[in-house]
Amino acid sequence: DNVQERIAAYLTDLLGMGFSGVRIDAAKHMAPDDLVGIFTKLRRNMGGSLPDDFVAWLEVLLGGEKDLLMCDPDSGYNYGSYLEDGLAAAGFDQDDINKIKIWNSGYPKEPDAGYCTISPVRNAIQNDDADQQTEGSTSRDMGDQGCVLIENCEADEHREFEIKLFEEPNGIQTSNDVDYPIRLVLSSYYWQGNSKGLPDGLSDCANCEVNCDSCQTTLKWEAYDKTSCGYDDEYTRPHRDLEVVNAMRGWMGLGDVTAADLGLSC
Hints:
Blueprint: H1 2-17, E1 21-24, H2 32-45, E2 55-58, H3 66-71, H4 81-89, H5 94-98, E3 100-103, E4 123-126, H6 155-167, E5 182-184, H7 242-251
Parallel strand pairs: 1-2, 2-3, 3-4, 4-5
């Protein structure tokens, strides 16, 4: 109970600073009942209901355990309807329950595995994610329905999957305007040879002082480039690709923009 109080107090402080919500990494390592306790205390701290613009999404990586984690509410460790029922029993109304999303790691190949006993209204989806960028990762099987940009995926192919994420994602039950209200685009960077360091200048072997013989350097790359049109050779930046931007804007009910509108010369 004390740990739950401390976490709820931290989240309360974040909201007080102006945050609208949180992502909870590796949420499946926190028991569903504990998550109910944390959000119940947070709701109490906020005066009895979550803010209108609040959103949280829980990273629940299925990893072949869809029945345990999402589809079987009687599994004893279920983040689907068991967690939802627990929130309801704690006094949450449906509006507040819907603010607590689950990352659908079954998307795009098996999107139904990521909602099973709950509505896709409570889902967050994306194409590739950071965990998949490690060579040999088996965290998610996308089959031919998605690809990892820095792992032998051409920009044109990747772009089509990103556009599909907004225009026609797999697994829609109600409508594209209602389901999957959170859709994520990963901007990352390519590996430099055998090095898996961050290109922030701190993983450069020129800075090494001890045990340097086996050092594998990662040179500094600038993360921000105001001239970028997306799909660059160092940092990937698909969020700056005009076709992806316009697909995202269309999903949000906004009109297309041109490169000139954005001050770019793509």
